[in-house]
Amino acid sequence: MASSSSVQEAGVPPAGLRAWKKARTRLTISNIATGLFMRDGFEAVTVAQIAAAAEVSVKTVFNYFPSKEELFFDRVEDVIGALVDAVVERPAGATVVGALHGVLADRLVPFDDDGWRRLRNAEDYERFRRFLATEEASPALRTRRLVIAELWTARLAQLFAHQLGLPKGDPRAATLAAMVIAVMTLRARTLSAAMAERLSARTVERRVRAVVDEAFERLAVAFADVDLPRPAA
To answer: What is the CATH number of domain 4-66?
Structure first.
């Protein structure tokens, strides 16, 4: 790793270096915490144990993650960000429902544009399976997932209203948002169940795609009157 002086000589401002160090510290804490959660169970691991393993103070852990649950769900903003990007950046001729359909069918997780390749690696498959199993075994994490779903529903409702030219608070935007989140919940359950059975990567993908395709094809019909294809610029 380059020293502060060498970084400055290379033209990287100190503020940039600080941001990089903070991001690295956050990732280190998150990775260590996730490993402990998967090994010992979410409820069994304390923040003090995480801090000790990461060689930071408990205060530092809470500076980056206000709650223990946020250590586990550390990619929440990346997930909703990927959905927002898919809608906002959809090409001419694409609908909101169609854009979301593609992201949720073609990727293991919305923010990973490598698609489903990750599951074809045995080590990655097992790690992801254990991650999902950790959430399933924890009442606290399952409860937190419900809170996250509510927050996502509200954000998507605002996004849909803006993108579809509907008034703020329009029930059509709120309904579409609630249905998209419901599909995501079904998708997550299907994925977790398939991986709990240790089905092949191809079979896991096929099962998830089946429920996503079915749901979004029906949403496309149900909202065809408001979710019109984006016109050419």
So the answer is: 1.10.10.60
